Amino acid sequence: MGMYPDWKSNCDFLHRAIGASTSSGHERGQWCQRVQAMAAALIAPQEQGKVEKPSGPGGPLLFDDLPPASSGESGSLDTSISQMVKNEGKGAKRKPSEEEENGSEELVEKKVCKASSVIFGLKGYVAERKGEREEMQDAHVILNDITEECRPLSSLITRVSYFAVFDGHGGIRASKFAAQNLHQNLIRKFPKGDVISVEKTVKRCLLDTFKHTDEEFLKQASSQKPAWKDGSTATCVLAVDNTLYIANLGDSRAILCRYNEESQKHAALSLSKEHNPTQYEERMRIQKAGGNVRDGRVLGVLEVSRSIGDGQYKRCGVTSVPDIRRCQLTPNDRFILLACDGLFKVFTPEEAVNFILSCLEDEKIQSREGKPAVDTRYEAACNRLANKAVQRGSADNVTVMLVRIGH
């Protein structure tokens, strides 16, 4: 766009110069026509907004899918994720007040393989370990199919699923409350109508669900004597057919295992965003609310900057507004890993994905009690990964959930 004024002025200059120096009216007319045609060819795409946008390795950057894994790095899995933010332009910053009110939704790029018209099956598996803690404060929910509970729905929507992990702190009450109530609130608020209506309103549905669940718990917590001080992270995956909506608070994570055809390797792609007080936007929100960050914690105590519960920190800028991401499942997707930070204190996402893949390919794992071999292997992968996290010295509770993507 910066070239537009220069080309236009140059063309005007040539037009005048030719007119002044050419004696033949016919020749002058031909030159003018050529110059004007050249100017129109250069200017029109800029004026009409038809300049082609930059493309990624798989083609034009589109709306809501994960990017391909980088094939340029050998020996490691690509964990980067490219984002298309609604506010175009580099350096644009979101206002804290706007984020507080509307949350944030991150849209990601189109990748190499195309989305499938076949609805993939989803099935969850989980393993929990108390570790060195006195009590188990994690909680989880696996709902492979809640389609009936969400009706009335469009006949074009054939499957709705929900998977979530919650990492409690200060007690088990907040994580247990969220596990029992968040999906119930989601079902009650789930958008009705056709597919387009669902797509337009599901973000607001998730924001309202988190807000309502947090308010319900805080009301109950404040009515106790003494008041409960429990809090919890939340990482939830809502699947509407082949579209995933990931909403999260805190430092529990969701990772997608996707096969890259170019590099012929599996990639660990982050579907969630961690929230801790050391991040710039999180710290600014906390300080604006009158709180402070010491030793990487809110008021020197709380490790996360977004949570359900934690009533004593809500006045200091801790919020229950989730980050929301959306992506489309593809035939190259293998599984989704949801886990609390007890796992990621001792495993990187890449290490966890590679560990799971090795378990799934272990032919020594045999089916038991009439179970399909694939179920047995996923269960074994969950248990082995949770055990290994404890063996590596994770002093926290460990929850490992795998969601198998069936093709």
Structure commentary:
The protein has 407 residues and is an alpha+beta fold. The protein folds into two domains: 4-48; 56-406, PPM-type phosphatase domain (Phosphatase 2c, domain 1). It has eleven helices and 18 strands. The protein has helices at 4-21, 25-48, 96-102, 147-150, 173-189, 195-222, 280-288, 311-314, 341-344, 349-360, 373-391; strands spanning 55-56, 59-60, 83-84, 104-108, 121-129, 138-143, 160-169, 231-232, 234-240, 243-249, 253-260, 265-270, 293-294, 297-298, 308-309, 323-328, 333-339, 398-406. Strands 3, 4, 6, 7, 8, 9, 10, 15 and 16 form a nine-stranded mixed β-sheet that branches. It has a five-stranded antiparallel β-sheet with strand order 5-18-17-11-12. It has a two-stranded antiparallel ribbon with strand order 1-2. A hairpin with a 4-residue loop joins strand 11 (253-260) and strand 12.
